[in-house]
Write a structure and sequence with these properties.
transcription, two-stranded antiparallel ribbon, 238 residues, single chain, six-stranded antiparallel β-sheet, alpha+beta
Length: 238
């Protein structure tokens, strides 16, 4: 067998998954594509179905299962975090402000990476901090491209409006002035995964005295550039 790992059953399972990459297959189709004996192909496909790596379509044909998508998403998250450090550090150095990366989790957003200001007053959000989705420029970014029903629910009790989010979608970045915390301003932009879905928000935040009441004028381009670098890292093939 070509590309043999020395572990026969895994090699055969990989053949089954590779065969399904091109689309749904009947058992006979799997046998033809893999060269496996019919009982072996059936046994492996059913075992992979048990682990949700294979599923069935409406016609009963074998297809790739949901577990593979979940694993791919987790790999994308790891790649996002691996790329975040240098991008956030550069963003902090360019803007002179603390930089953060947020991901949505249910009705909250979590700071998954950050680069703090090196001196002076630090307006930090520690990694692991959980913040609401009802206020702040990062919350606006994570909400703006949601499905209409989820967007409508998320706007209930929010400090921003549907009109504001429409502006965010048009500009490609968001700003907030004292929205989440008095005296603090921020600017954020979307990080997009390979399917173009918004998977995270990159931000800078600091006191209004430094960022002014129009923080986007000062920092929007740097934020958008940082978000584009992270998006590109997620699109690069392994």
């Amino acid at each position: 067998m070509d590309n043999s790992s020395g572990v026969g059953v895994l090699d055969k399972a990989a053949l089954v998954l590779s065969a399904l990459e091109s689309g749904p297959a009947t058992l006979a189709g799997l046998v033809g594509a893999t060269g496996l004996a019919r009982p072996t192909a059936h046994r492996l496909a059913v075992a992979l179905e048990h682990h949700r790596m294979v599923a069935r379509d409406m016609q009963g044909r074998f297809i790739l299962g949901p577990r593979l998508g979940e694993l791919a998403a987790a790999a994308g998250e790891d790649r996002l975090l691996a790329s975040a450090g240098p991008v956030l550090t550069h963003l902090r150095d360019v803007t002179g402000e603390s930089a953060q990366l947020y991901r949505r989790q249910g009705d909250m957003r979590i700071c998954v990476a950050a680069a703090e200001r090196l001196s002076g007053l630090r307006d930090t959000v520690p990694v692991g901090s959980t913040l609401p989705m009802k206020a702040g420029s990062a919350a606006q970014i994570l909400m703006a491209w949601e499905e209409p029903e989820r967007l409508h629910r998320g706007l209930q009790g929010a400090r921003f409006t549907a009109t504001a989010l429409s502006g965010v979608r048009r500009r490609g970045w968001a700003q907030s002035i004292g929205e989440r915390e008095p005296g603090v301003a921020s600017v954020s932009a979307p990080v997009r995964g390979p399917s173009n879905r918004v998977v995270a928000a990159v931000s800078v935040s600091g006191p209004i005295e430094r960022l002014t009441r129009h923080p986007g004028r000062m920092h929007a381009q740097a934020i958008v550039d940082a978000a584009a670098r992270l998006s590109e890292a997620l699109r690069r093939p392994n």
